[in-house]
Amino acid sequence: MCGILAVLGVADVSLAKRARIIELSRRLRHRGPDWSGLHCHQDCYLAHQRLAIIDPTSGDQPLYNEDKSVVVTVNGEIYNHEELKAKLPTHQFQTSSDCEVIAHLYEEYGEEFVDMLDGMFAFVLLDTRDKSFIAARDAIGICPLYMGWGLDGSVWFSSEMKALSDDCERFITFPPGHLYSSKTGSLRRWYNPPWFSESIPSTPYNALLLREMFEKSVIKRLMTDVPFGVLLSGGLDSSLVASVASRHLQETKAARQWGNKLHTFCIGLKGSPDLKAAREVADYLGTVHHEFHFTVQEGIDALEEVIYHIETYDVTTIRASTPMFLMSRKIKSLGVKMVLSGEGSDEIFGGYLYFHKAPNKKEFHEETCRKIKALHLYDCLRANKATSAWGVEARVPFLDKSFINVAMDIDPEWKMIRRDLGRIEKWVIRNAFDDEKRPYLPKHILYRQKEQFSDGVGYSWIDGLKDHASQHVSDSMMANASFVYPENTPTTKEGYYYRMIFEKFFPKPAARSTVPGGPSVACSTAKAVEWDAAWSKNLDPSGRAALGVHDAAYEDTQGEAPAAVTDNGLRPAIVESHLKPVAPASAV
Q1: Where along the chain is L-glutamine bound (predicted)?
Q2: N or C: which end of the chain has fewer CB within 10 A?
Q3: Distances from the Cα of 579 to the Cαs of 245, 472, 500, in angstroms?
């Protein structure tokens, strides 16, 4: 991950203004500690803080076309850059950076090239010939981007809110899958997949196709010139990422540079469910496994720093971001700069435990669509900012555009939880990788019950956070919460505590409006809370709030959660695999 800051059309072009933009850009240096760049053209400034993943020696930004009339500052990775370069035979590339292709694509195709990019990205491009500019964000919002407006008529773009919040009168989260053009002065959506309309698909489930598309997604994300690894919680999603990466690593350039033994990383409280499961998966795959421990107090001590970096007061996001933030620091200390992670699967396949209560396939599918559309406000924000706080890049194979298109085109009847048929949550992806001849994972890991990251690191983590918040937020403070915080009023002491910290760093009304609100149970949207009347009395984002579903569910709305959980015992009836034998790795 890198940090970008672009300020266009400023009224003041003095040296003091240049110094101010450099100062603001430094607020993003944690994202890109390897190099700082700045391009100035009249009243336009494009700044960049680089984390060097591809072409570390010559890919410093901003990047240019041949005559430097087109300037671009980019955060992200373009996985199909070699294929795109092949379509531009008359263009001369100055670096081996995957992102330079953006400048040349603009020369060739104008503003209509963004859908050609396969990757995660947020960029601002300036055409100095007419001083027009565009900004765009990837399809799902894996890379963060904010847009703001100054009182002097300037337009701002930044990877994080902290670099523009002081100088902009108003700012917003730049919407995923959108492009802004100065020529029209408006945003338009460039990403228009079939699932976006939320109409119900009818394509039959094809397990082999689903597996093939996911393997391709993982393989393309092994593109790196620096050491990397996989975040392995021991749950289904991260275990599948690690299994596929381990299986195909030796075919890659990365293996030739850094060795063919995959490194995996896990964090948790001592004795937590994730640590045990991750160790078992790592042993099965033969990875070089790194296990990190933290205490509840260490997590609490990091809360202010976490909220400053992730820029949200959402309870679930903060709970999960804290251990990820602590783990990323340890990972960076080992010299690793890029990791693969399992975000996105639960949204695509209805993996959260509340999906057990979906009344029909229509509502199931519509909820998955709503969840994917909101990922940039939750899991994508967490995965990106918690890791980039320490100069580590997180890549998410489940959010590959092509994979999502295939997965969201499946008739949702196949995704529904049907215990009578032996189908638990995410059965379609579990079954796709249930290969008897060349197993990807042990059966009990492949069919392990969903455990949210903030739960899986140790149940006492959440209980400790609640206790800590109760010591700092009084009953009278909660009684007046609606007057102090009329927008997105916190409904728990934990939420109130996070809100106080957030407002200390980001006091403007525009900042609090970038954070979503509304009731939620076990990470549901507000709409899905309606699926079970009991949930409205137990609004907590923990997976254990899914009463009657999670094996370690809260006993009642006031009950204490167990400090530990035994093997969940959730084993579906064995489903006979209908997959064809798997081809050798090199042929897949």
Answers
A1: 98
A2: C
A3: 21, 55, 53
What are the start-end ranges of the H helices in 122-174? Answer: none
Question: What are the residue numbers of the active site?
Answer: 2
CB 450 within 8 A of CB 549: no
How far apart CA 415 and CA 410 sit, in angstroms, is 8
Is 283 annotated as a binding-site member? no
| Cα separation, 161 vs 27, whole angstroms | 10
d(CA 68, CA 59): 15
Tell me 559's DSSP state.
P
Please indicate if the annotation marks 267 as binding a ligand.
Answer: yes
Q: For residue 297, give the H/E element and its range.
A: helix 296-301
Nearest-angstrom CA–CA distance, 196 and 365 = 11
What's the token pair of residue 489?
């009023």
- Six-digit token pair at 314? 């959402």
Residue pair 252/433 in contact by the 8 Å Cβ criterion: no
Instruction: State how beta strands 288-293 and 263-268 pair.
Output: parallel
Question: Is the previous residue joined to 509 through a cis bond, with omega within 30 degrees of 0?
Answer: no
Spatial distance between the Cα atoms of 162 and 5, rounded to a whole number of angstroms:
11
Stretch among 138-147, 460-469, 520-529 having the lowest mean pLDDT: 520-529
Rounded Cα distance between 433 and 240, Å, is 8
Give the tokens for residue 533.
């009347």
Q: Which residues of 348-360 are buried (b: 16+ CB within 10 A; e: fewer)?
A: bbbbbbbbbbbee
Task: Report whether 9 belongs to an annotated binding site.
Answer: no
Strands 263-268 and 228-231: parallel
- Look at residue 89 and tell me whether its pLDDT is greater than 70: yes
Residue 1 and residue 24 in contact, taking contact as beta carbons nearer than 8 Å: no
**CA separation for the pair 436, 438 (Å, rounded):** 6
Q: What is the pLDDT of residue 252?
A: 87
Say if residues 382 and 310 touch (Cβ distance below 8 Å).
Answer: yes
Q: What length is written for the chain?
A: 588
* pLDDT 10s digits, 283-308: 999 999 999 999 999 999 999 999 99
If you search the block for the tokens 């042993």, which residue do you land on?
Answer: 283
First to last CA, the chain: 29
Torsion of CA 224, 225, 226, 232, to 10 degrees: 20
Strand arrangement, sheet containing 146-149? 35-41, 44-50, 3-8, 155-158, 146-149, 170-173
Look at the alpha carbons of 527, 532, 538, 541 in this order and tell me if their dihedral is positive or negative: negative
The answer to whether the annotation marks 341 as part of a ligand binding site is: yes
Task: Give residue 521's pLDDT.
Answer: 66
* CA-CA-CA-CA dihedral for 496, 500, 506, 507, to nearest 10: 100
Which tokens hold the place of 292?
């990190």
Which H helix or E strand runs over 155? Answer: strand 155-158
Distance CA 544, CA 118 (A): 37
Classify residue 286 as exposed, middle or buried by CB count within 10 Å of its CB (0-12, 13-18, 19+). exposed
